[in-house]
């Protein structure tokens, strides 16, 4: 693998671009006229009439660039989105931004608002008719209430037929629809959410490598549990386990394994998923991991602590359903496979896309179509990688085989999870009662069914 270039996380996926090629004329110079040959028997003695010269069609000049009169285009996030200029790719994009500023007579401003203040800023400013930014990045799940409030615009309202997003989508892509309508857009990128495993521990304990099971078509919940149980050991006979089969946040396990069983707490069309028997089956399996088989390492003492997402880093845990952004500082070699298939897998989706970010155009933005077009154009820069996400993935994995598998079998297989973005939806109450209080899965779902339905009605 080539040397890591260290692109920033935000712009790893923003450098793919197509090169437009001009097609040559297919006229090989043949004469398509109807002039008769000199010995044509129908020729007359009249002098030949000269054909009037054909006028060449006037070449269409490209439309003049819109003059934005020196205005500022504001792009907001809870981090600094401006390219730092530390790499060739970042420098190329800075040059592109400057080129566009000159062409359209405007200035870019990148606004950085703390995460805890961000959504309130989006909502209050836009409802007041003065959006604090033209383009704002948001987690899709947190944008759900804004759809009903009517303060974000559908993609169809600010894009044209010639924009890349409505054609090849090499520069910009439409992100998953919410309530049947597409609002969010983003650059092509990589997201590797899967079952990460400690390859060093696999070798030490003499276990079968999960990639071997996956490649053989045997990577299922049953095999996952079998490996987790085999890795949970008291290796020094002191009465305490020294290695563990699994670690992680139970809510993540429920979401991701739910997707591999074709079930979700809330479906993408805002219909109830929590009462689906396939989700109950998933929650039973998660409960089995945490409370029956006891294969989970709980470092904090609280099974429902989100920080258990980091316990895998200790090096004594075999597997964790985790994220590419969370495995860059490991002291051991890590491998990855898609999350194991449940009994009702749809064979297409392998993880819940619960934290997908996307850009949104806020209601009230002036010249929205022009603003969008400029933003899309700002990513039309030469590629700096041999394949999408190369620099990022090479900072995560030591083996090209892991990268190849991640790109082929994990990236792009997510299913949008939105339950956390539905105000008052009782996902955490359900998980607390099952995991911490050992309550019955079926009884817990029934207990919270009415509250879940009421929460969904508020955003429809």
Automatic annotation (TrEMBL):
Where is composition skewed (Basic and acidic residues) in this entry? 47-62
Gene3D superfamilies (alphabetical): Periplasmic binding protein-like II (3.40.190.10)
What ranges does the record give for the region Disordered, renumbered to this chain? Answer: 28-66
Low complexity bias locations: 32-46
Q: List the InterPro entries.
A: Bact_solute-bd_prot1, SBP
Which UniProt key words apply to this protein? Cell membrane, Lipoprotein, Membrane, Palmitate, Signal
Recorded hits in PROSITE patterns, A to Z, give: PROKAR_LIPOPROTEIN
* Residues spanning the signal sequence: 1-22
> Could you identify this protein by its name?
ABC-type glycerol-3-phosphate transport system substrate-binding protein
Q: Which organism is it from?
A: Paenibacillus methanolicus
